[in-house]
Amino acid sequence: PGCGKGQPTSAPSSVMLNGTERHFITHVGQHYTPSQPAKLVFAFHGRTSSNDGLGYYGIEEASDGNLITVYPAGLPEEGPQRNRRDPGDKLGNLRDYQLFDAILDEISEHYCIDPSEVYVVGHSLGGRFTSMLGCARATNIHGVGIVAGSPMPFPECSAPTSAIIFHNPNDNLASFAGGEQIRDKYLKQNQCGPETEVYQNSYGMDCVRYSNCLPQAPVVFCKYSEGGHMRPNGAANMMRKFWKER
Fold it and tell me: pTM to 2 decimals?
C-alpha cells in the first residue's frame, strides 16, 4: 500500500492496541525511496534494556540503506524490567504478537515494503520472543536473527522461516543448552537434515549451516566467545549476509 506514496513528514512511532498506546522507534534508511520496495527489520530488546538503545544491533550500519528498522518498546516502558506477554497468555497468542501485526500494518501503509523481506531480530528476552514470533507469524516473517535467547514451548508453527542463531557457550544468563533447543526447534520447523557445512566469513565465530532444509529456510548456528551474554561483534553483518543468501 505504501509504494508510490510520498514519505511521511515524521516516522510512525505509536499504535493503539487493546486500549493501550504502544510505542516504537522507526528508522528509515538513507537510500529509501517510495518507488523501490525496502527491507523491514523488527528489533526486540531484552528484559532490562529499552528500545531507545537498540542501535547497538548494528542493523542499520550493516544494510545497503534501503531498509526500515523498527524498535518496539516492551511493557512497562518505565522501570527496571519489561516483558512481551501478559499473565495467562497462551503461547500461541502472546500479547506482543498483536503488536507485531499492528506495527507491520502501520509501516506497510506508509512505506513501500517488500513483503518477502521482513525480518525479526532479538537479544536475550528479545531473542526468546523472536524465536517464538518466528514460529507464530512465520507466514509474514522471512528470517529471524536470535542472539542469546532462551527457549519456551513453541506454538504450532505457521510456516518455515530462515534462522541464524548466536549463542555463547559461556553465557551465564541464558544457557547454551537453551540456544541449542532453539536451534533444534528451527531445524524441525524447516525440516532440516543433520548434515552441516562450515559457514564461511563468520567474523571469528564458529558457525555451521544446515544444508538440507526446505527451500528458502536454511538454519545457521554460531558459537561465539566474546562478551558473555552480550551481542557478538559482526552479528549484524552476519545476519545481512545470511538473509541475502537464503
Answer: 0.93
